[in-house]
Known about the structure:
Elements: H1 3-22, E1 29-34, E2 37-43, H2 46-49, H3 56-68, E3 77-82, H4 86-95, E4 99-104, E5 129-132, H5 136-163
Parallel strand pairs: 3-4, 4-5
Antiparallel strand pairs: 1-2, 1-3
Helix pairs in contact: 1-5
Amino acid sequence: MNQQHDEYWMRHALGLARLAWEQGEVPVGAVLVQADRVIGEGWNRPIGQHDPTAHAEMMALRQGGKVLENYRLLNTTLYVTLEPCVMCAGAMVHSRITRLVYGAHDVKTGAAGSLLDVLGHPGMNHQVELHSGVLADECAAMLSDFFQMRREQKKALRQAQRQG
């Protein structure tokens, strides 16, 4: 795939990440594409859904499975704004996606090479093609802006409690 094509779909994923932000969730978005057609979309919703597995990638993979009526998501590419965690990377291997494209690296929990490499582990029964760093600055900025906002909100709340 070419860089312009990957950037197009990553911008779509960034739009989904904004939906997460608007819902008070960590802004991560994911879009699952097969033959230039969206078959799954997701954004982080673990807080609102009271579900630790409601990560953007999991939501997109679940929707893709329903669209294809198959748990195998062959010939698909998943675009996600943040490097997947162990759970999401494992789901990608089990679903047999062909390719993962992600934006920002996650050195704390990333399982596509930053902390662990689940997707490229030689013992896995399926290897996922990987392309990282697409619109990385925009993806990382959205996350850091979100957490900066949350810190400022908590600080304002503490100050209000002290004054009240």
